[in-house]
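Final report, Chapter 2: Outcomes

The project's central promise was a pipeline that accepts a single protein chain and returns its three-dimensional structure in a standardized token representation, suitable for archiving and comparison. That pipeline is now operational. To close this chapter, we reproduce one record exactly as it appears in the project archive, with the input sequence first and the structure output second.
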Amino acid sequence: MSHLFAHVPVLGIEWGAWKFTGQLTAIDLIAASTNAFNGALLARRPDHYKGFTVVGILLMAILGGLGGGITRDVLLNDIPSALTNPAYIFLCVAFGIAGYLLAYGPGQLFREGWFQFATAFSLPWYAIVGAQKTTEAGLPILAALMIGVIGATAGRYYIDITCGVTAKQFIQGEWFVGTALLSAGAWIGLHEAGVESWVAIAGAFLVGFVFRVAAMYRGWEAPLAAEPQGTEVHGEGKVLLGRKLTGKSQRELKKLGLLPEAEPADS
């Protein structure tokens, strides 16, 4: 195995094809389990729930738990660990059941706090594993950052799309992608500085986790794209150029969204 783990003492816990420790396995299982728990919570969240069956909820948990890792491994041209180690699917189902049962508290209130904590906890793990595996494959730093982000966020993307919701990566929120990028970058920085492997992992996790929790607590959000003030989508759904605009009145131009609304005068 790579020099990344040359100085890491690992007590192997294996049972046939089932592996719970060794190299990246323990961290990857933590990431898959927490993402599966989060996936089940997300599938039962009011803005995502679409009348899913119990089996549907568990499939969402598996999708959330394994989607990022499988996508990462495929991009790195590896056989996904989830397909060779039954522990992945077993833990995803177990944590999916836990998420299904714990999604709502007294008074049928969705446990939003649990969901947000699980998100903050799970994001850094997959980002770190993605950066580690990419570095191990001999790819450059930018590739490690990209795979770190993809591995950490792909599971959420699959669930959002399946639920018919705009993917979290593309809308304003408490630095969802930024947390993954920061976690992967922190691990790369510590690794390049020669910090011991498990110390680098713990340090990168704390950086990502603390940042995400602080962002939620303080209300830090990724900035929205700048939008011209007073414009609207063109009513005709067509591009209007040249002669097509000739003779249009101010009212018609305004209706087409081509004439910004005047600013109200100060009183």
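Archive annotation: The longest strand covers residues 14-15.
This record, like all others produced under the grant, will remain available to the consortium after the project formally closes.
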